[in-house]
Amino acid sequence: MRRFLMCLGPLCLVVLFALVLSAPFGLPGQDSLAHVLILGTVWLWALYRPDAMALWSVVLGGLAAELLLGGPPGVLFFWMLVTYAIGSTHVGQPQAGFLASWVTFMLLVAGGAVTEWCLASLHALTIFSFLPVMFQFALGAGIYPLLYAFFMWEQRRPSQRMRS
């Protein structure tokens, strides 16, 4: 039961990001921001807290994100599963440090953006501009340090409360 409750944290965070960023705020790059935040959540939890990130929570979060967000169907869900698989199997990567996890995350974001671009271009039978792909990559590269800092702060916080 405790593991089930632990797995609700990342699931709720993914659903919250999808729900908030599916609202029509009119922010430029809002869809890209949602994808980066969701992939970042899955990556950080799978890499640094694999005990709290179960496959069923990735599947449920992916289904919720697919229902709430736009884009080619299944692309975000597929890349969430790929991100989870890579993050949960890289047991020694947290010791490799921030830079290794950042580069790997940027490659995952780039893979997702290129896949989405290819499918959208194929569906429309035209080649779209590559600028949105570069924007999503830059957004992922820029936002990951903030996600990482927040995640590490949040992971240390309960232990600091225990000492007090």
Task: Note down, in words, how this protein is organized.
This protein is mainly alpha-helical and 164 residues long. It has one domain. Helix content is 81%, strand content 0%. The protein is built from 7 helices and no strands. α2 packs parallel to α4, α2 crosses α7 and α4 packs antiparallel against α6. The two termini are 27 Å apart.
Give me some keywords for this one.
164 residues, mainly alpha, 81% helix
Concise structural overview:
With 164 residues, the protein is mainly α. The protein is 81% helix and 0% strand. It comes from Formicincola oecophyllae.
Summarize the topology.
Elements: H1 2-22, H2 30-48, H3 55-68, H4 75-89, H5 93-96, H6 98-124, H7 131-163
Helix pairs in contact: 1-2, 1-3, 2-4, 2-7, 3-4, 4-6, 6-7
Q: Count the strands? A: 0
Helix percent reads over 70%
> Which oligomeric form is depicted?
single chain
| Spans of at least 5 consecutive residues with low confidence | none
Instruction: Describe the sheet with the most strands.
Output: none
Radius of gyration: 16 Å
What overall geometry do the principal axes of the alpha carbons give? globular
User: What is the end-to-end distance?
Assistant: 27 Å
How would you classify the helix and strand content by structural class?
A: mainly alpha
Strand content: under 5%
Mean pLDDT: 91
